[in-house]
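Blackboard transcription, Thursday session:
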Amino acid sequence: MLDSPSQSPSTYQRPTIPPLRVLVAVASPANLARFDADQAWNHLCETLRPLLERGSIELLRVAPATEAVLRSCLDAGPWHVLHFIGHGRGQALAHYGAVVLENAEGRARGLNGRYFANTVRSSASLRLVVLQNAGDADTDFAPVCEALIGEGVSAAIATGPMSDRAQALFLAKLYSAILLQFDAQAALVEARHALAATGFDIQRLHLASRDPAATLFAGRPADCPKDRDVAPAPVPAPAAAAAGRGDGSAAAVELAMQLERKRAACEYDVFLCHNTADKPGVKRIGQWLKTQGILPWLDIWELPPGRAWQPILEKQIDSISTAAVFVGAAGVGPWQQQELYGFLGAFVSRQCPVIPVLLADAPVAPILPVFLRAMTWVDFRVEDPDPCRQLLWGITGQQPA
Amino acid sequence: MSSKRTLTGLRPQAYEHPLDTKALDALQRTPGLDTLIRKVNEWGYERLLRIQLTGSYLRVTEDSYPDLQRLLRQACETLDVPSVPDLYLAAGGESNAFTAGVSKPLIVINAGAVDLLTRDELLFVLAHEVGHIKSGHVLYHQVADCLPAIAQVIGTATFRLGELAGAGLQFALLRWKRMSEFTSDRAGLLACQDANTAITTMMKLAGLPQKYYGSINTEDFIAQARTFHDMDTDKLNLVLKFVSTMGTTHPWTVMRASHLMEWIDTRGYEKVLNSPQSPALALPPGVSGFCAKCGRPQKGSGLFCPGCGTRLPQAAGDGGVMAPNA
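(Written on the board underneath:)
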């Protein structure tokens, strides 16, 4: 194998991130259904531009996408992720799968799952392989994922064919979650949730992992942004710490009772307005707010099944004192627009604050409704000013100590 | 690897290769076949073979070489073959195996195969041989082995006219024997349930040097098989292929890989794995019933079952041929 003596698997230390180093192979052999490899590469770069500009991620393209160049690039690591876009074949019941690279003439050259896995294993730092289907609906990369895991790769994710929009969401959510040291399963949940809203068949997202609950990349380095929208920061003591975990301490009980009293009186502190695609991240922020004694209104916590949701929602829109409008990779959703206009009316009449919140995976230049552009943003893409403190300040109107 | 499915109720017709079926039909229409089978039975060829094998090779049992015995048992269980055949180990460095015996089949595997193949690859090889037994190939294989000697005897008695007839029969037998390998490859895959294993086994059979065993890219071999298959568009190539293989007992390894991958790609393998009892037990056109012993469809008025050699009843109610709903 190609392991260097200093990085044999037994002695290798888990890398710290960022930057997350991603090796990208886009293979479009001349004798298979062609797709524009350059366009696929550009689309990937554009989608991940916020992370690239922050220095959170580094990309290198394997060009041409041959086995020899791939091996050479792997040797020039360290790499954390191999992202493959292209064709393959697979038959799960026959435990057979292959990825298709290019040969020296630009034609198809398949590498069966085990062979491909052995090739990839030459990079000791590599933890994750993403196999993105380039449009051939019959391609099933799941057997290749299983082969990769069998040969020692920590996790492998396979996707079915995606529209450009679905691909953009998938990439933004997945890589943001990885940077926040989510485990493979949780990272995929982020991506699945976002993709469900696009009409993508989420059954075509496959994860194989040696330990789905294990963090892929350990060790948060000092220069990593505090993306607390998806990875809540350590909760300030004392009462807050207990509330989120429900550890039964006196402080936790007191905090829980305080929130319950607010709920009984319908005194919600903040309405969490969001696109469904961003729900997991927004939910985590809501949980964190609870630990700060803030009672948020989030649809999945407050709308009982079997009831008409519009009257309940309208009641909150008329009575709530603050709104936080979250914008992530998916942008502003259709229903979120209606909520926004409702709040706009309330804002005009009651002068309540509406806080635009940019999530960590928000585009570099997010498209916001006109009336929001004049508001001061809370930006989870940056570390300074601390977005958590900013959000608390916006909700309570008091600058945290 | 994940656990393998047991294919309860698996019928050989469910996975029989169409070329096998076609070649068998052609063989059964060849004059003289019934006579030939009768001669082989009369001469006690099978008994002779068993004596020779028992005296020459190492017998595999639950106590001696139990790992091999377990693999054989696994192959039989997966393919739903209730009676586990005897297994013998033979000398020889090549990866090879064969099956003999109709009434009491036995499998012989070379030491080379045991040394060079992985556990799953051995399972594929053993299941391939079990497939020959399940599909009732062994009788005709034996006949093919005896044919040159029999043809000589018949030829002498018939002033060499018999030899001419024997040549036609030999051609039909060898052709069918080659095609029957495709069916048994499918049985091997159904047992190991891993196409990678099946293809690496074939690559080793094709002569892959041991130094490359650690870095086998089956896709290169499959690409070669596709190129080979694509040659069929040229009629001259087709004729050359036909002529090149007509004297051999086994098809080219690349050809076998090509046919096996085609079966997977066209979802045939998946269908059998999901529904091993298909096709439903119904009489196809021209079939008069099924052999009570091996289940092979019977056509015409043959004396013996072409699958297992069992003598067939000539009168209704004799009990040898079962109607589908019997």
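Lecturer's comment: Residues 334-350 of chain A form the longest helix (17 residues).
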